[in-house]
Write a structure and sequence with these properties.
The structure holds two protein chains of two kinds. In chain A, 29% of the residues lie in helices and 22% in strands. Chain A is of the alpha+beta class.
């Protein structure tokens, strides 16, 4: 046995391998023009808009389907889409929509009032023949709908059981997107893999764990899209997604991790940012323990250095939150609200006044979850800030599902504070579900900290019943002032969604709704 | 021999049944349920209860277990909640991908590991032995996911010689060369640790054989050194090397989980991690049972191979 013979053979093997590899250099660098490749964070669950709950899936759906209404570009206000106009009865319970004429689903069937009725009956009526194509986890967005009536082929009437101001906004949400009844009948519960809508792109192919491909719909009622096709690739690992973007394997990357942003600050990349309807907060247990005293809750708001959290922990991917309503709801947000300043001395004063110096706090932290940003690092920073003003903070960390199972039933007897984040489509949703007395966990709500203020309850009930937007705005603004003062939460951050595009992508903008709208995008 | 194989196969039945019980209980015991996972922030007790009922999870546990087991024995693994697709389709597709990755890595680590071990042993304390021992130590010490990330950074991002992730190109032909270019980095990253382990153990197995009388006899008869090492000694050493390969095959299979996540390889490991996080009970259960069954079968195959190689092992 001689070493030299082996070395020769090994060299030969390596040489062959290297030659094979080098024979195709650059093959992985270019993606075709006219085809946009999007790096998604996960495989979609389904392409049936009534069956999904994740922003990740919405990014695809919003390009394949339309709703009766949609959000105006760059806002969270509704404008006509498949409905051209509508009237609302004076008592706010009957909505009559006139539908757009001549619109066809991708499968060739016609969009009409029957199709609209089919969509909502499928979700809401347990005796509907296609109810079993569910489950429809977000159908409660439309639980106020008592009935849908076909007035004539191009007119449809919704009757609500009570005035419900967020109704239009919910129609613009993915759960309200209109699917082709013909396709549902044809594919049954497989519809989610064979979707058909009226949107700018039609479904072409779903290769499991590789890509969802959609192609331009040349007959789109709002003008054919510029792109020929869009490929959505699920790349769950954030580092790998970043590497794909750097290597040119994808043209558009969403949810760039804060630590990777610096990689993309220079040419040939563009970083897009857009504040959305998101708020990251700490639920404080207002029922028992130190936080039962409003002064201690305010002290927590003063003690936590939110600037440091958004700038250092989140690397500028969020802004300091002032109150319970995110500024992205421009019409309903109270711009006079100033965030609690970072003032540890004021916090110590308030704590001394309340006589809870050195109190022990149990703090629920999650490892990660929808909208939770960087919960462990943020939780640690918050712990340090609270300890600096004299609290003794004990962190308990849970995996997301377990965390929700602990927090949603209420913090009583378990914890003094918990991290939480919400992304909603209407300023009504979060405060209505999480700040009212009637939303205590035992009554099916999310008010896990048991905050109760009759005045806030009244304002929220009134805002839900009002159909005039200016009136609703006034009520929400008043509510925000009270809630900020009462401090049932520590208002921490409003996330700015981000995305990176390569220099081959033009006309791209993020939306405050967090949806990804691609019909005007160009790729060279 | 047929009797031996049959006996081994029969003994696998209680093992597999035990696995179904364990995986079912674990999924039932971990906190959080699919409805909470699906609903996320909107998971009120009321919504959770309704969705669990729609998903058929409101029945007693024992009943759920026997329904699941009965269906599975008839080949019906159920439908994944999170992917809305039959579990068996997903598992088979994903397992295929894992087999391609882990199989390639296993071939790589077996060939290079055994070869390195033999060369090391044949040149004990020589420079080749020292060099190999050093490289092997390095290989064993680097966590595979870290190595994978570094390989992506260097070979895919900087040099652009290989694609970053995935199994097939998004565009273009799905032929062998496309697969090979996607497979190269993850397979190597996955093989490195096992190569090191195999090399070390193969070296000591060889050293033990090389000290034996029949080797001296072979040398005395004038068999060329290469023949002594590769024909006489390696054949004898294989009896102790094959079980090592069998164990390493298990490590390669489980190590594939990290590599599949780093390289977005659409394999069964990544599937299970996603499924566990989403509380996709049927997919986890079906996936685990399937992988466990394959692993048990593989072990039986290793034992059979060993008994074929060494007549002293009773069949």
């Amino acid at each position: 046995m001689t070493i030299s013979s082996l070395t020769r053979r090994t060299l030969l093997a390596f040489g062959t391998a290297a030659a094979l590899v080098l024979s195709a250099p650059g093959a992985f660098a270019q993606t075709p023009p006219g085809v946009l490749i999007v790096g998604q964070i996960a495989e979609p669950k389904s392409l049936d808009p009534a069956a999904v709950t994740a922003v990740n899936d919405f990014r695809i759906l919003m390009n394949v389907y339309d709703g009766l209404v949609r959000y105006k570009d760059g806002t969270l206000e509704t404008e006509p889409a498949l409905a051209t106009d509508w009237t609302i009865s004076d008592d706010g319970t009957v909505y009559t929509f006139n539908l757009r004429e001549g619109v066809k689903f991708h499968d060739g069937s016609a969009f009409d009032a029957e199709a609209v009725k089919f969509n909502f009956d499928r979700m809401l009526d347990e005796s509907h023949p296609y109810y079993d194509t569910g489950p429809f986890p977000l159908s409660f967005f439309f639980s106020a709908v008592e009935g849908v009536e076909v007035v004539d082929p191009l007119t449809v009437r919704f009757t609500l059981n009570a005035p419900y101001a967020p109704f239009l906004s919910n129609l613009a949400y993915p759960t309200g997107l209109i699917v082709s009844p013909a396709a549902v009948m044809q594919y049954g519960s497989d519809f989610g893999r064979n979707p058909s809508g009226t949107g700018a792109f039609k479904f072409a192919e779903w290769r499991s764990n590789e890509a969802v491909v959609v192609e331009a719909n040349p007959e789109y009622w709002d003008g054919a899209p510029e792109l020929q096709a869009v490929v959505f690739r699920p790349i769950t690992d954030a580092n790998t997604r970043t590497a794909e973007m750097l290597a040119g394997g994808i043209d558009l990357m969403v949810e760039v991790p804060p630590v990777a942003l610096s990689e993309f600050q220079a040419d040939p990349y563009t970083v897009h940012e857009q504040a959305g309807p998101h708020v990251w907060f700490l639920i404080l247990n207002a029922k028992e323990g130190p936080f039962a005293d409003v002064r201690v809750r305010q002290a927590a708001n003063y003690a936590i250095n939110k600037e440091a959290i958004v700038n250092d922990v989140l690397e500028g991917t969020a802004e300091v939150a002032a109150g319970p309503t995110p500024p992205a709801f421009a019409w309903a947000y109270n711009p006079e609200l100033e965030p609690y300043p970072y003032d540890p001395d004021r916090a110590r004063e308030l704590i001394a006044e309340a006589g809870v110096e050195g109190a022990e706090l149990t703090f629920y932290v999650t490892e990660g979850g929808s909208g939770m940003l960087d919960p462990v690092a943020m939780g640690t920073a918050i712990q340090a800030d609270l300890e600096a003003v004299g609290f003794d903070v004990k962190i308990e960390t849970y995996e997301w599902n377990t965390f929700l199972g602990n927090v949603n039933p209420g913090l009583e007897g378990k914890a003094d504070m918990a991290e939480m984040a919400w992304m909603t489509n209407d300023p009504d949703t979060l405060p209505f579900l999480a700040l009212r007395t009637a939303a205590f966990p035992d009554q099916g709500g999310f008010n896990s900290g048991y905050y109760s203020n009759p005045q806030v309850d009244e304002l929220l009930e009134a805002a839900r019943a009002a159909t005039d937007q200016a009136e609703r705005a006034r009520l929400y603004k008043e509510m925000q002032v009270i809630v900020q003062e009462d401090a049932p939460w520590v208002f921490v951050a409003n996330w700015k969604q981000n995305a990176v595009t390569s220099d081959r992508v033009e006309n791209f903008a993020l939306q405050p709704s967090f949806f990804l709208l691609l019909d005007d995008v160009v790729k060279n | 021999m047929t009797g031996y194989i049959l006996k081994r196969l029969l003994s696998a039945v209680p093992v597999l049944l035990g696995i179904t019980v364990i995986v079912f209980l674990i999924m039932a015991m971990i906190p959080g349920d699919p409805a909470t996972a699906i609903l996320g922030s909107y998971a009120t007790p009321e919504n959770v209860e309704k969705l669990n009922r729609d998903l058929g999870l409101d029945k007693p546990l024992v009943q759920q277990y026997f329904i699941w087991l009965g269906n599975m024995l008839q080949g019906d693994f159920g439908t994944s909640f999170a992917l809305n697709r039959p579990v068996i389709d997903e598992v088979l597709e994903r397992f295929n991908a894992t087999l391609v990755l882990a199989g390639t890595a296993f071939v790589l680590c077996s060939l290079f590991g055994v070869a390195a071990g033999v060369i090391s042993a044949a040149n004990q304390y020589g420079w080749a032995d020292k060099a190999i021992t050093f490289v092997v130590l390095l290989g064993i010490s680097i966590p595979s996911f870290f190595l994978g990330m570094m390989m992506i950074l260097f070979f895919a991002v900087n040099l652009r010689l290989f694609p970053v992730s995935g199994m097939w190109p998004i565009y273009g032909a799905r032929d062998l060369s496309a697969l090979a270019s996607h497979l190269a980095l993850p397979a190597i990253a996955l093989a490195v640790v096992a190569t090191g382990v195999i090399a070390r153990l193969a070296r000591s197995a060889m050293l033990e054989v090389l000290r034996q009388d029949f080797i001296r006899t072979a040398r005395a008869k004038g068999v060329p050194e290469r023949g002594v090492i590769w024909r006489h000694a390696l054949k004898a050493a294989m009896v102790s090397i094959i079980p090592i390969l069998g164990i390493q095959a298990g490590f390669v299979l489980s190590g594939a989980v990290y590599i599949e996540i780093v390289f977005q390889w659409p394999g069964v490991g990544r599937m299970l991690v996603d499924a566990i996080l989403k509380r996709d009970i049927l997919l986890v259960q079906g996936g685990v049972v399937f992988v466990a069954a394959c692993y048990v079968l593989f072990n039986i195959a290793v034992d059979v191979a060993q008994s074929l190689l060494d007549p002293r092992i009773k069949t």
